[in-house]
Amino acid sequence: MRKPTKLQKILSYLTPIRLFSATGGDENPVLELCYYQGQYQLATIDALYSDGDRYKPVNIACKHFASELNSVKNVLVLGTGLGSAVQVFAKKGHYPNFTLVDHDATVLEWAKEILEPAEGQSIDMVCTDANEHISNESNKYDMLIVDIFKSRVVPEFVTTSEFLGKCKALLAPGGCFAMNYIQHKNADWDTIKKRIEEIFHNARIIKESINNIVVATV
């Protein structure tokens, strides 16, 4: 991965600058690393997976949990992108330890080169399937963020009762849960929403365009 030149940084305020592209596997046939208005972006053909500290889903979740952020010491992120969660927290003056899980080694490699941990902060990157990871995880977290997509579609396993229950089990008492979901069909979402509320009894849905941001505490 190459960093933007001084000229590219200037031009990025006019238009996104593509720095690098890679051919991935079935999940991400084409990945593009772009630089736009001072932030790194991760894009596929029809989706934007990261937008630095501007990334709306994590910003929305952090705004909802504003009073809890001081108590968040460790965060598990399932679906890393370029690590926008780390950057959003840093912009707000919070530097918890992060475990970033993604199945795509290229994405994690780019994130590793972009992210700059604060002094004393740890950022662990795990290249594996999210469902497999939480099935074998035993640590407890103060916050868990689920941001898993294949293009603009959330994989079916993410909204199963089994997966959601495993996520809840990994949260420490008082822990915060956030999930980004793009709604395509109202009937599907009604079923999924009911399932979420059965697992997270105080869940709230924050709508942002076609995105539904699920937030809850345990």
Characterize the structure shown.
The chain is globular. It has seven helices and eleven strands. It folds into two domains: 6-49, no CATH class; 53-217, 3-Layer(aba) Sandwich (Rossmann fold). The protein has helices spanning 6-11, 56-64, 84-91, 105-114, 130-136, 161-169, 186-199; strands at 17-23, 30-36, 39-43, 48-51, 74-78, 97-102, 123-127, 141-146, 171-182, 204-208, 211-217. By secondary structure, the protein is of the alpha/beta class.
Topology (SSEs and partners):
Blueprint: H1 6-11, E1 17-23, E2 30-36, E3 39-43, E4 48-51, H2 56-64, E5 74-78, H3 84-91, E6 97-102, H4 105-114, E7 123-127, H5 130-136, E8 141-146, H6 161-169, E9 171-182, H7 186-199, E10 204-208, E11 211-217
Parallel strand pairs: 5-6, 5-8, 6-7, 8-9
Antiparallel strand pairs: 1-2, 2-3, 3-4, 9-11, 10-11
Oligomer: single chain
CATH-assigned fold name of the largest domain: Rossmann fold
Number of strands: 11
Shape: globular
Summarize the structure.
Helices cover 29% and strands 32% of the residues. The chain has 218 residues and is an alpha/beta fold.
Kindly list the characteristics that best describe this protein.
single chain; globular; alpha/beta; seven-stranded mixed β-sheet
